Give the backbone structure.
Amino acid sequence: MSDIGGILSISSQALLTQQKAMNVTSHNIANVNTPGYSRQRLRMSTNTPASMSIGMVGSGVSADSVERIYDRFLNDQINIENQELGRWDAQKGAVEVVETIFNESDGYGLNHVMSRFWEAWQSLTNNPTGQTERQILITDSQALARTFNQLVSDLNQAQKDLDIIIEGTVDEVNRLSEQLVDLNQKIISAEADTSVANDYRDSREQVLKELSKLIDIDSFEDAFGATHVRPSNGRPLVGGGQSWQLSTQINAAGLNDVVWLDPSGSPVDVTGDIDGGKLKGYLKVRDDIITDDLNRLDTLAQTLMTDINTLHQAGFALDGSPGLAFFSGTGAGNMALNTTIAGSPDLIAAAADAATVPGDNRQAIAIAELQY
């Protein structure tokens, strides 16, 4: 290796090796803004030295492989945190929509109409025979009932809107699962000759990050280089070269449950098993937060109707007839002012005794004091 040919050979191989290193560096620079890209570097090693009379003499450098700078533990932690980030981002956005339903800033919220309703009863106590006061009470009572009705309608619509989003999220989970299967196959094929498919692996990690934002997942890589993915319920989504689909089906409440399709295509309800990602956030708001709001509205409306109806039916109208039920309905969704009273303000039972009509305001006072 001491002749001119050997010297030129070492130089030529060194130049080729450094050119490969420059290609790798150029690839890094070109992908500096590529989501999920991992920096690469060329692994180099000295060639086997030649044994000569003066000892071992080096024979240059050669390129061994292109190494991907990647920390699997760190990426697994990122995916775990992505599940929580996806959940809370989705839940925050959905809750903000619900908050606009209860908006009080425009002067037409529930607190506002309830205040006017109680003020109308208070005004009636000051002038129990006044037609103006009675008509105002009817108008404000109808406004209160409509507000309850509208809140229920808006919350139900919010649930339906989230239902559509949940369907779309399930479709996105399936799309990403299929991408993982495709990338698994490309990686296995590319690495069959001991090469490392760095760019395919980057793409697969990026898909895993996106998937972890949608649903809670555990993943591992098998001996062949294929990634397997399972949600926390243990049922597989991706297994090497195969994916399993999620789907939705309507439940008794008319909303979509998330189901996992087994190998025979039979649906298995996994709604309650989902514990992270955007799917969890959307399901939490739809099934827990909005349902709780609807139940609270029903409780408030039912309590208000029961208390007022009880007192109103114990009172007497301007003509001395016993009071009717002031409100009709079973809850916030169908609450309404009694149509008979709405058509005849004289039937508002402000008096506590038929013998003291007109002028008796004691029943109106009792109802006004219910204010809550």
